[in-house]
Amino acid sequence: MADHSIVHSDDATDFMADYEGFGEMRGFTDELGCEQIAFTWRRMPPGTGGKGSYGHRHTDQEEIYFVVNGTVQFKLGDEIVTVGPRTAVRVAPETYRSVHNDGPDEAELVICSIRSENAEAETEMTPDFWPAD
Which residue of 36, 62, 85, 98 is surrounded by the most CB atoms within 10 Å? Predict the structure, then answer.
């Protein structure tokens, strides 16, 4: 393996590509050839995210969310917190979580964790986690 890699966001996997109007969620992990770290960038237009949908948690992954710009709400277990730009949020593996952009502006987040070998097997979902208002 090379000692470095470079990937533009246009070449990273867009997990939101099938969901028109919900922004982008670009996973750089595989494209960069990461062995230890998962790295994701998310762009959230106003009114998009987790409200009215599921929550999830990871059996082995602690996650760090860094809000680059905009203001988003996190539902972490039963608690809802509002987080603004240049703020980091750590979420323990056992905590169900969901993120929503209720604000009038677009939001951008960076998400980091350890790399998962089988993300689907290590992710648990709960329906109706964050009912819509």
Answer: 98
Q: State the pLDDT at residue 116.
A: 83
Tokens standing for residue 1: 């393996």
User: For residue 91, what are the β-bridge partners?
Assistant: 63
DSSP annotation string for 67-113: EEES-EEEEETTEEEEE-TTEEEEE-TTS-EEEEE-SSS-EEEEEEE
Q: In the 8-state DSSP scheme, what is residue 11?
A: G
Question: Tell me, what DSSP letter sits at residue 10?
Answer: G
In Å, how far from its chain's centre is CA 14? 12
Return d(Cα 53, Cα 113) in angstroms, integer.
Answer: 23
Contact between 26 and 42 (Cβ < 8 Å): yes
Say what the pTM is. 0.91
Structure tokens at 76: 């972490």
Compute the distance between CA of residue 129 and CA of residue 44 in angstroms, rounded to an integer. 19
Q: What is the C-alpha to C-alpha distance for residues 55 and 108, in angstroms, rounded to an integer?
A: 19
Q: Indicate the pLDDT class of residue 26, thresholds 50, 70 and 90.
A: very high
